[in-house]
Every structure is written in structure tokens, then in C-alpha cells.
């Protein structure tokens, strides 16, 4: 039977193991360590710095110096918090001219932008650093070139299922309660349509990529653009507002015209002489 070894480890064995472990950790760190900032990353930081300056001048009076929002005395928000809204929300609101608002109203209308495209990019870059949120969509969402008829048809199905209740089946818009409305989608860029779906501006719900995939979002945009560009084979479209407007046109122009003609004939037609 073999005897158990009674030899003890050398006192320096633990130190040697520790040095070997430190060497392994150092090698792994050197392999995965962050590289020095590239020119693009430096430009991005420049955008963040410039965006903060723009924010403090043009936005902080409503949203607060730290973009955490300002509450009114009645408990409502004078300007909501922008922490976590992401770059896409800023690009949409500022890029469409909805922000800054000219005056308080139930809904911010689209208008000519107050900021240039470069300034909008800088503001979006700054807000993006305050919390995780949707980024400005890339070609995966907005590139609709080469879409097949089948993809456009699928986009139309998604649009009719999720969007027509507010925007109408052809994106003509419509009225909503409380003085609000769903805006027309005619002339809206593909990027801004994608941003609206991603961020849910104002009363619009958010359609995350888990709900509607990027491909389906691009199919929806392709359908909207296809409908806007298709000719009106039946004549005047009546604004594309649906059967209500068409019925109104029928009564005013059709039935109204017949009533006017009947009244004119009755007033100027041959009269029966009394005996």
C-alpha cells in the first residue's frame, strides 16, 4: 500500500499561481479592450456637445435643463421628460417641425422645421445619451425600393389592421376626440413614418419591432407610398376620406343639383291659366 505524500507545497506556489492568473487576465483584457475613439466616434461626441448647447437654448425652458420635464401647478406636464425617448423621437418631432411648439394646443401640428438637419441630428444625439430609446431608423426600415406586389399587399394588410381606424385606409387622416387628429400621410418621408411607428408620437400607439417587424414596417411604408402615387381611375377621389365624404358630395352636388333644377323648372315653366 502506497503512503500518502507528506511533502508540503512550496511557500511561493500561491504567488506563482496568482501571477499566472493575473497574466491570463491581462492577456484577455488586451485582446478585448476598447480601442481609441475613431474619427466617427469623436464626431458623435461633438454632436452630443453641440446638441446639449442647442437644447439648453431652445428646449430647456419647457423640458428642464436636465430634460426631466417640468410640471405645472395643476400637476400636468408643461414639457414631458425626454429621458429614454431616444434619438428617433427627437428626429421625428423636430424634423417635422412639431417641436418646438408655436403655442400650447391639444396636438402639435407639423410645420416647417425650426432647426436644420444638422442641428436636428445634434439634438437627437444628445437626447440619446440620456437613456436607452429607439435609434433613428436605417435602410432596414426605410428602403422600399424593389418591393414586390406581394410585399406591398402584406403592408396594406398591416396598415388596414393597425392604422386605418385613425389614418383612413389611404392615409388621408381623420378627426379624433379632444381636438386631436390623425395627420395625413401624404408627403411624409419614409424615415418619419418609420419613426412614428417606433416612438408613438402624441396619441399614436408604439409599434415596437416585437409587434411589427422592421420588414413589415417597410412594407407598410411601401403600401402608403403606392396608394399615394396611384391614379384615380374613377375620377375625383373626394379626398380619399371614404363613404361619408362621398355620400356628402352625392347629396350636395347630385341631389342638391336636382332640387335646384326642379325649383327652376317650376318657377319658369309653362303655367296653367285660370279660367
From TrEMBL:
GO terms for cellular component: plasma membrane. It catalyses: a quinol + 2 Fe(III)-[cytochrome c](out) = a quinone + 2 Fe(II)-[cytochrome c](out) + 2 H(+)(out). It is a multi-pass membrane protein. The chain crosses the membrane at residues 248-267. It comes from Aeromicrobium ginsengisoli. Heme c 2 binds at residues 163, 166-167. GO terms for molecular function: heme binding; iron ion binding; quinol-cytochrome-c reductase activity. Heme c 1 binds at residues 59, 62-63. It comes from the Bacteria. Residues 46-131, 150-228 form the Cytochrome c domain. The keyword Ligase does not apply. Pfam families: Cytochrom_C (PF00034), Cytochrome_CBB3 (PF13442). This is Cytochrome bc1 complex cytochrome c subunit. It is found in: Cell membrane. InterPro entries: bc1_cytC-su, Cyt_c-like_dom, Cyt_c-like_dom_sf, Cytochrome_c_Oxidase_Subunit. Binds 2 heme c groups covalently per subunit. Keywords: Cell membrane, Electron transport, Heme, Iron, Membrane, Metal-binding, Repeat, Respiratory chain, Translocase, Transmembrane, Transmembrane helix, Transport. SUPFAM superfamilies: Cytochrome c (SSF46626). The cytochrome bc1 complex is composed of a cytochrome b (QcrB), the Rieske iron-sulfur protein (QcrA) and a diheme cytochrome c (QcrC) subunit. Its EC number is 7.1.1.8.
Amino acid at each position: 500500500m502506497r503512503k500518502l505524500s507528506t511533502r508540503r507545497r512550496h511557500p511561493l506556489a500561491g504567488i506563482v499561481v496568482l501571477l499566472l492568473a493575473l497574466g491570463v487576465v491581462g492577456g484577455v483584457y488586451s485582446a478585448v479592450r476598447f480601442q481609441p475613439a475613431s474619427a466617427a466616434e469623436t464626431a458623435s461626441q461633438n454632436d452630443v456637445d453641440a446638441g446639449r448647447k442647442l437644447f439648453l437654448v431652445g428646449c430647456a425652458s419647457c423640458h428642464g435643463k436636465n430634460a426631466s420635464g417640468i410640471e405645472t401647478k395643476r400637476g400636468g406636464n408643461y414639457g414631458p421628460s425626454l429621458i429614454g425617448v431616444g434619438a428617433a423621437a427627437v428626429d421625428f418631432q423636430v424634423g417635422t417641425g412639431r417641436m418646438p411648439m408655436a403655442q400650447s394646443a391639444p396636438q402639435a401640428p407639423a410645420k416647417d422645421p425650426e432647426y436644420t438637419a444638422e442641428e436636428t441630428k445634434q439634438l437627437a444625439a444628445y437626447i440619446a445619451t440620456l437613456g436607452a430609446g429607439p435609434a433613428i431608423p436605417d435602410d432596414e426600415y426605410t428602403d422600399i425600393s424593389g418591393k414586390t406586389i406581394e410585399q406591398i399587399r402584406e403592408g396594406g394588410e398591416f396598415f388596414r389592421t393597425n392604422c386605418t381606424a385613425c389614418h383612413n385606409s389611404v392615409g388621408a387622416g381623420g378627426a379624433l376626440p379632444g381636438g386631436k387628429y390623425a395627420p395625413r400621410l401624404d408627403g411624409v418621408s419614409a424615415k418619419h413614418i418609420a419613426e412614428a411607428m417606433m416612438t408613438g408620437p402624441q396619441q399614436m400607439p408604439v409599434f415596437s419591432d416585437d409587434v411589427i417587424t422592421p420588414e413589415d414596417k417597410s412594407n407598410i411604408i411601401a403600401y402608403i407610398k403606392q396608394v399615394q402615387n396611384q391614379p384615380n381611375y374613377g375620377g375625383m377621389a373626394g379626398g380619399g376620406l371614404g363613404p361619408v365624404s362621398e355620400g356628402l358630395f352625392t347629396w350636395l352636388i347630385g341631389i342638391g343639383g336636382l332640387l335646384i333644377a326642379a325649383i327652376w323648372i317650376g318657377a319658369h315653366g309653362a303655367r296653367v291659366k285660370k279660367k
